[in-house]
Amino acid sequence: MKSKLTTVALAAIVVAGTAAVPASAAAAKTAPGRCHTADLRAGFATGEDAKPEMGQHEKQTQAYIWFTNRSGHTCTLSGFAGVDMIGAQPTDGTWSLARSSAKAEKVTLEQGDTVDFSITLLPVAGSTPRTEKFVPAKFLVTPPNETKHFTLKWPFGGQILKQDGATHPGTYLNPVGR
């Protein structure tokens, strides 16, 4: 009889101990945090199929920027990166790119995983007047929800139609993962 009571009492303690930890608290411990700038590397995708067609000026083209998780832990990215283009011409200044209307999704990056996002560009002919074109030199790229940026040199040449004050410019960025 004594062993039955001991077993029941031990079972009650085990059940009570398990029930004391809410399921949401257990899940929160395993959910990865967001990626910080220090966790990442960044660069332009430069493979043949990833290069923007800057030599043409009849249609929009895309450039891709990637983030790679270089940390020793899993982290997430969600939203839009901040992208400021710095121009090569003295009259270009800095152009903060507008965001597309595409919906952002959370992306989980294990150690060594890479994700990219696209920038839609509207190239123009070299003969376009200086005041109507923006000549990219550098891109300041800030990961979503961060304040520190990467400085990337523009490797593709060409010019973009200058629409830095437009409501719906032909050059804009898409969320991470798109």
Characteristics:
15 strands; 178 residues; disordered N terminus; Immunoglobulin-like; 4-stranded antiparallel sheet; alpha+beta
Task: State the total count of DSSP E strands.
Answer: 15
Strand order of the largest sheet: 2-3-9-15-7
Low-confidence stretches: 1-21
Largest sheet: 5 strands, mixed
Please name the CATH topology: Immunoglobulin-like
Q: Approximately how much beta-strand content do the residues carry?
A: 25-35%
How far apart are the first and last residues' alpha carbons, in Å? 66 Å
* Structural class by sheet pairing and helices: alpha+beta
CATH class descriptor name? Mainly Beta
- State the share of residues found in helices, binned by percent: 10-25%
How would you sum up this structure, described in words?
- The protein has 178 residues and is α+β, with helices and mostly antiparallel strands.
- It has a single domain, classed as Immunoglobulin-like.
- The chain is built from 2 helices and 15 strands.
- The chain has helices at 2-19, 23-30; strands at residues 33-34, 40-44, 61-69, 75-77, 82-87, 94-96, 98-99, 107-109, 114-121, 123-124, 133-134, 136-142, 150-153, 159-161, 172-173.
- Strands 2-3-9-15-7 form a 5-stranded mixed beta sheet, with no helix packed on it. A 4-stranded antiparallel beta sheet has the order 6-5-12-13, with no helix packed on it. It has a 3-stranded mixed beta sheet with strand order 1-4-8, with no helix packed on it.
- It is elongated and about 55 Å long.
